[in-house]
Specification:
Elements (H helix, E strand, L loop, with lengths): L8 H5 L3 E7 L6 H11 L3 E7 L4 H10 L4 E2 L3 H9 L7 E5 L5 H10 L3 E4 L7 H14 L3 E3 L7 H11 L6 E9 L13 H6 L2 H4 L4 H17 L5 E7 L10 E7 L5 E7 L10 E6 L2 E6 L5 E6 L5 E4 L7 H4 L12 H20 L13 H19 L4 E3 L1
Parallel strand pairs: 1-2, 1-4, 2-3, 4-5, 5-6, 7-10
Antiparallel strand pairs: 7-11, 8-9, 8-15, 9-10, 11-12, 12-13, 13-14
Length: 390
């Protein structure tokens, strides 16, 4: 069953979910990705926004995409939207990391569901405070670890859950890029500037930007979190304030071992997220740049390549597949899967019920794990590579 078909007739006929956005205006990258993803399965309508840091830029950014309700700041938006009969039901937060906590708190207190980019906050304490507020107000809080939306990632997760790999022994995950190989942040490039600034990005650079993606993906597929880690965070580009390369060893409670490498200074790598998981009976490998394939190697047998959209895919992969085999799905579709899954949950919340059991998206709990990972890795590295608890 495809993701479109997994919606009931009643859901399809009901009003689209009214979405707001904070951030994502002029010069932003990820805001446009979220807007496209939210529209892809026709479940959301963008209704309001505070898209930039100044009222002028916010209004200009809203006009550029035809958004009628533009606010000068997020506090005004949270207050006025909550007072409208047609106000937003959920807000997407796509600001630099340092603003996530304050923006999320304002909308949760106003009774609005939240979708937030990762890392969800810059400290565990802030993330835990948001969790308490979300629980007190009964609001959904989703975190866009978008790679969990890919069908073959869900295929891999199901195979691990079903015991097809046996007891998990090894988890190897890497996420190299090369876009910060030189000091791009000094050229005025907006994305590089805030991601390398500890005042805006938080205490982690590469580890917070992409290392946390790798960490979350490993836990999502392997079904377990490490109990300890040993990290070395490096800054190779002279004059850079935050880490641009991360190497981490992982220990799991069941005796499994893992390694995580993330880098933004590895020439020749664009967005080379890759994970390998090995158990006592089989191993698997998935690469983000070839997302429609999953390689499975059962001990003593020739490796097998499973294809998205084919008869070899499990139901978990099939229900989030939109196109027939041979028609590639990728980054936008993975993001859109999360929006559609969140949409299921919001529609259920409208009716005071829980979403269907198969609905799956990263929550604030995942966000807390991600920030705890960043803090543990920084603590380990600062101590000269100590083994620390996560």
């Amino acid at each position: 069953m495809t993701i479109e078909a997994s919606y009931s007739h009643a859901e399809a006929a009901s009003a689209r979910i009214r979405l707001g956005m904070v951030g994502g205006g002029e010069g932003a990258f990820i805001g446009a990705v979220h807007r496209i993803a939210a529209r892809l399965d026709d479940q959301f309508v963008l209704s309001a926004g505070a898209l930039s840091s100044t009222p002028e830029k916010a209004a200009r950014s809203a006009a550029a995409i035809g958004l009628a309700r533009s606010y000068p700041d997020y506090r005004t938006m949270a207050r006025e939207e909550s007072a409208r009969a047609d106000g937003i039901e959920v807000v997407t937060i796509v600001t630099p990391n340092d603003q996530h906590a304050a923006v999320a708190e304002a909308f949760l207190e106003a009774g609005t569901h939240v979708i937030c980019d990762k890392p969800v906050t810059t400290t565990v304490a802030d993330a835990q405070r948001l969790q308490a507020i979300a629980q007190a107000h009964g609001r959904i809080f989703a975190v866009t670890y978008n790679y969990t939306g890919y069908p073959m990632v869900r295929q891999a997760r199901r195979m691990v859950r079903d015991g097809e790999l046996g007891e998990i022994r090894l988890v190897q995950v890497e996420y190299p890029q090369d876009w910060l190989t030189e000091q791009l942040e000094t050229t005025g490039q907006k994305q590089a500037a805030w991601r390398t600034d500890p005042r805006r990005s938080g205490p982690g650079g590469c580890i917070g930007d992409i290392g946390t993606h790798a960490y979350q993906l490993a836990g999502f597929i392997a079904g377990m979190q490490p109990s300890q880690l040993c990290a070395e965070l490096s800054t190779f580009v002279r004059g850079r304030a935050l880490d641009d390369n991360v190497q981490i060893m992982l220990r799991y409670a069941n005796g499994a071992r893992g390694m995580l490498w993330a880098s933004q200074v590895a020439p020749g790598n664009e967005n080379a997220l890759r994970i390998r998981v090995y158990g006592s009976r089989a191993g698997l490998e998935w690469q983000q740049e070839q997302p429609n394939r999953l390689q499975v190697s059962r001990f003593g047998e020739a490796p097998q390549t499973l294809s998205r959209g084919s008869g070899t895919a499990h139901a978990d992969a099939a229900r989030v597949t939109r196109l027939p085999a041979g028609h590639p799905e990728g980054y936008f579709e993975g993001f859109a899967t999360l929006y559609s899954e969140i949409g299921h949950a919001i529609r259920a919340a409208r009716d005071g019920r829980a979403p269907a059991q198969e609905v799956n998206f990263p929550t604030l709990e995942d966000g807390i794990h991600g920030v705890a990972f960043i803090e543990a890795a920084i603590r380990s590295s600062a101590g000269g590579g100590l083994w620390v608890g996560v």
